[in-house]
Amino acid sequence: MGKQLQAIRGMNDILPEQTPAWQYLEQQVRSVLGTYGYQEIRVPIAESSALFSRGIGTGTDIVEKEMYTFEDRNGEKLSLRPEATASIVRAGIQNGLLYNQIQRLWTSGPMFRYERPQKGRYRQFHQISVEAYGMVGPDIDAELILMTARLWQQLGLTEHVTLELNTLGTQESRLRYREALVAYLSQYEADLDEDSRRRLTINPLRILDSKDAGTQKIVADAPELFDYLDEESRNHFEDLKKVLDEAGVSYRVNTKLVRGLDYYGRTVFEWITESLGSQGTVCAGGRYDALVEMLGGKPTAGVGFAMGMERLILMLETLELLPETVNNQVDVTVVAVGDGIGNKALPVVERLRDALPQFKILMNCGSGGFKAQMKRADRSGAKYALIIGEDELQAGTATIKSLRADEAQQQLPLSEVAGFLKSILQ
């Protein structure tokens, strides 16, 4: 026999007992986004590699090290999407959704990056990406942040996340700052970590959020980007902070926050948590007003964010914030006793499902005696067993037995079973 096949490292199965938590998070996100008027868009998992190298930036870790790239049979270079924003912009340009229009869009699904797998961070991971186009003012930046704050409130995470803000200004102001930053860091080039030395000529702003302790000490005295901002960017940032202040959303200005993708400008933000041990980001985004034009469209303002589902679910589980109703348990298991009784009971169970569409009813199918079926019923987590045998079918009745409480079992006419179950399950 051949070696047992395994999932690819960093690409994990989501098992049946885990999916209810995912469904709960997806439902909560969908609900909040819907109340703000955001519409769902679904984009391909694979795109032309050029889309990401042009949009994300050739000097980024994602493009240089992390993308899953391959050639198809026609020799075209394709990549599994490492993030969704570039794909949404491509779809918007291709389908005429962006120019001179206002769009509020969101998508969710798997993304792919080749990096060291760790808890809550995998090579195939899942993100919810939210994007807004055609609005230039700080009000839409604020809306996105307020929307995430509302989601944290709905999930019970408000006390476990902290908002960090920064502004990157315009491309022109960043170029002026880049010159000053490179001049400063070049004095300490030999003391920088290896990645930072490489970034010094490719993407020096990324050195600001290096996790290397030695580099962090050097960066602490680096020039501040805020000192090189244009007046319009300063005003944009101040207006954003005023809206958040008036809305009661707390934040911390982090002048070293730059984000890892080249397309960001002006507002950038991250929601971070320490609830999982070391500090981690659960949601991040910002403005990318130049991205649409960079990918071949007409100039169009854009702003958005992405949140990692694995990390959010891990938080909900760790903090025990998932409702008790989030489980795979059924409400009623039907136990059919006797040869051929299962086939005769199926129409009865279907009529019961018609009458009780809000409840989960599990029909025992296949062979098994009464004791075996009752054991399965107990393992299913069902609250009640509905027992149907030959005698019950002839009499038009069923027996209802509690599996979780010390209650006397009852035999009822089939016509009364639905009403009785509804009264005790609610």
Task: Please summarize what this structure is.
With 426 residues, the chain is of the alpha+beta class. It has helices at residues 19-35, 49-55, 61-66, 85-94, 138-155, 171-186, 194-202, 213-219, 231-247, 291-294, 309-318, 341-355, 370-379, 390-395, 414-425, and strands at 39-40, 46-48, 69-71, 77-80, 103-112, 124-133, 162-167, 252-253, 267-273, 280-287, 302-308, 332-337, 361-363, 384-389, 397-402, 410-413. The strands form 3 sheets. The chain has an 8-stranded mixed beta sheet.
Account of the protein in words:
There is one protein chain. This protein has 15 helices and 16 strands. It is elongated. Helix 1 (about 20-35) packs antiparallel against helix 5 (about 140-155) and helix 5 runs parallel beside helix 9 (about 230-245). The protein has helices at about 20-35, 50-55, 60-65, 85-95, 140-155, 170-185, 195-200, 215-220, 230-245, 290-295, 310-320, 340-355, 370-380, 390-395, 415-425; strands at about 40, 45-50, 70, 75-80, 105-110, 125-135, 160-165, 250-255, 265-275, 280-285, 300-310, 330-335, 360-365, 385-390, 395-400, 410-415. It has an 8-stranded mixed beta sheet.
The amount of beta strand, in percent, is: 15-25%
What is the overall shape? elongated
| Count of strand segments | 16
The CA-CA distance between the termini, in Å, is 52 Å
Oligomeric state of the chains present here: single chain
Query: Structural class from helices and strands?
Result: alpha+beta
Largest sheet: 8 strands, mixed
Mean pLDDT score: 90
Radius of gyration: 28 Å
What is the topology, as strand order, of the major beta sheet? 1-5-6-11-10-9-7-8
Helical coverage, percent range: 25-40%
> How many helices?
15
Uncertain segments: none
